[in-house]
Amino acid sequence: MNAWRTVYGYWKIVRELTNMLKSKPEKITTRVAKLESAKRELERLVDKLRKDNLRSVAQSIAVERWHDLNIIRQKVDIDDRDAMRLLVDILRETKRTVGVIVSIIDKRPFFLTFVSDDLTSKIKAGELAKIIGKLADGGGGGKSHLGEAGGKSVNKVDEILNRFTELVEELWNQKPNYS
User: Fold this and answer.
1) How many domains does the chain have?
2) Domain residues for 42?
3) Same domain membership, residue 80 and residue 46
4) Confidence bin at 153 (pLDDT 50/70/90)
5) In this protein, which residues make up the domain named DHHA1 (predicted)?
């Protein structure tokens, strides 16, 4: 009797799948494989569109000069940390660039600091993130090319962005003053 229930249960599943997929039972696996392939193609298209959109956002971001460095300090309206990281990857492609982007996620500031590869021996994004995290009443850290910081104080975001070039200068000259 148990075997019959098991077989009947599987038969019901196959019948449901054939109705859902509008396919014959013997072609279910082929139909699922085609759907998986179409899904992967759509995911690639969404990724491409997301990157294209982020490239246009990157082009709209103001770049300031400090000596021979490109300085970026920008608020962005992106509530997805992965999308922010993709944007930073695009911004880091420009040589001699140091920057910070910030977005308010879940009512808290989230900062990404970044340094182009050609400058990581001179200035570390993780160090910038540590400083910014403290200034935002939170914490931060990271690697030489990318740092993350979070804080509790949304009201300090503008002050931090306004001080960013000064923070870069202090680290560049190796005479930190984090107060």
Assistant:
1) 2
2) 2-57
3) no
4) confident
5) 74-170
